Amino acid sequence: MTGRDEAEFAEFAARDGGRLLGFALLLTGDRQDAEDLVQMALLRSAGRWSAARAQPEGYTRAVLVNLARDRWRARRRRHTEPLGDDPACRTAAAGGDITAAVLDRQMLLRACRGLPVQQRAVLVLRFWEDRTVDETAAVLGCTPGTVKSHTHRALARLRLTLQEAPELRTGPNREEAPC
Amino acid sequence: MLSEHDLRTRLAEALHDQADPVTGDGVDAVGIFARAVRRRQHRRTVVRVTSVLAAAALLAGAWALRPWPARSPGSPAPGYGPPGLLLAAAVVRPQPAPAADNGLPSYYAIADHGRPVAEIRRSATGKLLSRVPLPPGIDPKLSQIAAGRPGTFVLALASFPRTRFYLLHVSADGRSARLAPLSVPRLPAGDYVSALAVSPDGRTLAVALQVGSQHGAVEVVRLATGAVRTWATARTGQPTALSWAGHELGFFWQDVKPAATSAAGLWTLDTTAPGRNLMSGRRILPASVGGDSVQTALLGPGGRTAIASVTYDGTRHVGAGTVVGGIVEVSARTGHPLRTLLAEHAAYSADPVHPGWYVTACELPAIDGSGAHLLVSCDRFGRLDRARFTPLPGSSPQTAVAAAW
Questions:
Q1: What total of structural domains would you count in chain A?
Q2: Among A51, A82, A113, which residue terminates a domain?
Q3: What domain range includes position A174?
Q4: With an 8 Å Cβ cutoff, are A6 and B212 in contact?
Q5: Does A139 contact B at CB distance below 8 Å?
Q6: Among A72, A177, B110, B281, which lies 20 to 30 A Cα-Cα from A23?
Q7: For the residues of B99-152, what is the DSSP string, one character each?
Q8: Where is average pLDDT lowest: A27-36, B3-12, B51-60, B299-308?
Q9: Which domains does chain B have, with CATH numbers?
């Protein structure tokens, strides 16, 4: 490890930190958890900088997915998967002027959080980062076929979630949405 | 009914809506790199005196204190008794070199974590016999190595995110070596090998796995067929060292975070018994014993004793020359210390940020088939033959290393 390595790492963290934090936020649904995950992922990437330096963002993303998966498993065991506490929902419950589009988005995001982490990661990479199937596969260290099947299953599950709660998407009483 | 296109569009909007405003303000990268580097180096256990007065008094004599092995490893601690329970065992006086070296393996293989090469070196002198470049793209810090049948070593080499296994064939005189892929199932992407050990009959490879950041497992692979059997546990933690005694496998379990009921320590696993629970065997030695911390441990080949790297983890009774770390032989039946094969003494660091007494925890890369010869890495890399330490080249101080014989 040299001073040059450290400078490279600092540059990477400054350049891509925000993007990684956004990625982690979409994986976890919780800002605090996301910050914790990014810190841990950066620590691991720094510890293996000789391997990570070629593609530090991809490496760190893969670490993030693994960390998120472990955390998700642990929460499942404890049966404490949070439902989220979205400011938008609080506003809605208070009778604010939340639009149907915002509620749709909140519901979609919440449905995303119910997906397995690997599927969630695929959706985030495909639809937030606009990555191709091949690029997503490279980031996650799996095959393009796996990415396709994860995408298909995740979208099917999101669609099912939306269909099971039609009143949230199209009904007149959106303000009563159980946040 | 939403169309596929609508669903994708709405999902993309939702994701952008939530994550696009996020900036890097919540990422504090300052100091992360230095922390990561420190984690990669040997763990250094700081042992501090609680009294400033005591520290000042001891500092006065600290100039004369040279880190081991400048002091004879076998010499007893002057003035202060060992503070912990494991380190209380008598320090063995090393045997003369000819007797200590009896039965020494003729060469050892080393995969330095700083360079992508594997080297064969003569055990007696450390002379380089042959060098084999590792495949392109591998991360040398993640290399693991274990001795197999005579003239062979098994290597686990990682190229993110995959780890693959190789067989290193070495000629009888050690002067030629050849690396070839080993025909065993490859690991899932993202799983890393933290230790390897080949069974005494050379037919079975044990692999300690790091699965994600918080979990671990042990796989046993039949080398002839590639058949894999896996033991896992719901506990958070990881196996970090492996050793065989007949069909019993010893593994050192390390917690990844503090736990109320820690399972850390040296465990045995009967690989012929049914079941897949990694913790179904017996814990020979807990990781914390009366103020001493067991950093890692190996089961002796006969299964009657274990070899443990120990550091004193307390803050009292420490002074110049106190034995605060070392390599201890313990009973596998009772866990009681039998003898201290190598004693490490407190060394003072006047670091302005963290002044205090330090000891470097030893790593135990390998034990030979007789149990009399160890490859160890403390402040220096070397061999420990019946309590006699001989420094060897092949690894720089403070650099983790994988080695086997």
A1: 2
A2: A82
A3: 85-179
A4: no
A5: no
A6: A177
A7: HHTTT--SEEEEEETTSSEEEEEETTT--EEEEEEPPTT--GGG-EEEE-STTE
A8: B51-60
A9: 42-404 (2.120.10.30)
